[in-house]
Design goal:
Radius of gyration: 28 Å
Oligomer: single chain
Number of strands: 2
Shape: rod-shaped
Helix content: 40-55%
């Protein structure tokens, strides 16, 4: 999520001060793999804008994790390649006619 242009509806209302969050809240275990926890108010109702916002950031973090793993594997590959001995193959020559 980059920039405020992507926020609409309840997200925008919260950011612009047109809506309030409950004063009492709790974090509970979620039921979906994409959202391992949910934020609920004092009456145990999900505070949907908070949960959805967190769900979006979870995807961002997973993407960063995959990128860092990929870059780490490429770095290790470069180190392995640099550690190998080079082989001098000499200058190529053209075959002589008649041979």
């Amino acid at each position: 999520m980059s920039g405020n242009a992507e926020f609409t509806g309840a997200h925008r209302d919260l950011m612009d001060g047109r809506a309030d969050l409950p004063r009492v809240a709790a974090v509970l275990e979620g039921t979906a793999a994409s959202l391992p926890y949910v934020v609920v108010d004092g009456a145990s109702r999900e505070i949907e804008p908070v949960s959805r916002f967190d769900e979006g950031w979870r995807g961002e973090v997973e993407g960063l994790d995959l990128t860092l793993r990929f870059l780490g594997s490429k770095r290790a590959q470069a180190h392995r390649a640099a550690a190998t001995a080079s082989v001098d193959l000499g200058m190529p020559t053209r075959p002589r006619a008649g041979r």
